[in-house]
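for the record, two folds in this file. i put them one after another cuz i was lazy. first one right below, seq on top, structure tokens after. the second one comes after a little note so u can tell where it starts
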Amino acid sequence: MKRPNLFVYVTLGLLVKIITLFKGQKITEKVKIKGPAIILSNHTSWFDFMYTTSAMYPHRVSYLAANKMFYDPFLGFFLRLARAIPKSLFQPDPAATLKAFKILRKNGIISVFPEGQISPYGTSLTPAFSIAKFLRKADVDVYKVIHHNAYFVNPPWSKNTFRGKIETSKALIISKEVLRTLNDQQIYDIVVAQIYHNASQYNKEKLYEYKVRNIKNLENVIYQCPSCSYEGLVAKTYHLACPNCSIELKYDLLGRIGGYGIDELYKNQEKTMQTKILKEPDFQLSSEVKLESFRNNRVVEVGYGKLTLNRTHYIFEGIIDSKQEKLIFEVKNAPTLPSDIGINVQIYEGNQLYQFIFEDPKLPTMFVHAGEFMYQLYKETNI
């Protein structure tokens, strides 16, 4: 496994640097980082790879990236050009780990986003525990490169850029010498604390303003009305409107919606789902879906049917590759449920991707709320 080509990296890296400066990125805390090293970053935007590249420029960085991204013709081209390392999400991937260690042995720098997915509401998600084992075995200095408020500039629910300030901080969080004295739990606790960022809370203090653009698709992150609890808010350019009580929630310059932080509304509807699950012993979510998966180096539609979530399993019944099939995934093996907002949820098993596409665009978020709570219930009852 080779490090990124120097000429290509310097050339494209400079272009990335210019783009991110235009978007509003500023490095507020600096530290010299030299290889071998691992840098950890929070993940709230599709552009976080660019912001990290800009923060590290001109140093070459090798990224661990979800193997799903390599199957996209556009993203895959640039990831291969950057010699990124494909990694299976939310399951062991010894091949990716070995490739990363080879780069470290050549004094390279590896970038990892421990959350494994983009936060839909701007607050850091819980990393997989495997990051602690990866760092311990790597036996190199560990740094953080944290992007404050990238969520408001390039929110994952929009293709628009809401131009404004992004503050990036860099710091050493665990030296190689200290790393050798820590157990996995201690390493994990440091990682969780150090990469944590809550964009809404951060901007309550900073009060940075962001250019407001069309907020289409935010209604699939925040689908529940904070006034009457109706589930089905409608996006109207700069507002979310409730068809039931007629309230209108304006998206403002500070990244708030109706005066609320997006994280606050997201957590409120999450609690509503949890309360419903606790009150209904036979609770389940079910929907007609299309199924996508890996075929011939692409993610393509391979079937259709019904996806059902109950307290113990995700169950798909339908047609796959022209044959009647039934897939069963245990909730206990899915601590997190990745989702492309308003489109799908994803289950990874056996180095295979099962991507379920919904017609109702709010259902992916509802499945995330329900599925991740089912996992928590499993943990609590099986300690």
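(here's the note) second protein begins now
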Amino acid sequence: MVALKRRIAETLVIETFTTADDLAFKIATSLGRYILTKRVTQALEAIPGRDRVTNPEGRTQVARRVARLSRLTSGARLLLVNDRPEEMKGPVELCLLKAAPFDVVVSDMARDSIQDEGLRFLHAARKAGIHRPTIFTVGRYEPERGVPPYAFGITSRVDELLNLVLDVVERVRG
């Protein structure tokens, strides 16, 4: 009997409860996390060419993490800066960054054929006294180049980007 209990404890998540309300809360929370994990996983699986920018283990891990941190990330503000006008109306001006309390900035490193435009943006923000954790996205990540000064991170992978954003939100709001 002891061996069976140990095997169950090693393979299943076990929750204990003390009241009917406690049980209902734990069931609802678990179902909510399951549904959110499934929704995030499906969104990651739907990315065209996803295997070039992530891997199955990374997608599964980050989907679980998003679900686990959903309360913390709810209401977090992210500023996305890129050069695709169909996604946003041009790069966001620095004054908007001042006006809104963004938790994290995600910026393309290269914009409008300028390879270091992201760094220029970061330096201009810092010169203006705006200090927000900034994560850069790149077409091809070169680890030997390291993370740019004053940047929180740099990546070419979707799952890593999500993990970096979650790291920032945990530090800023956690």
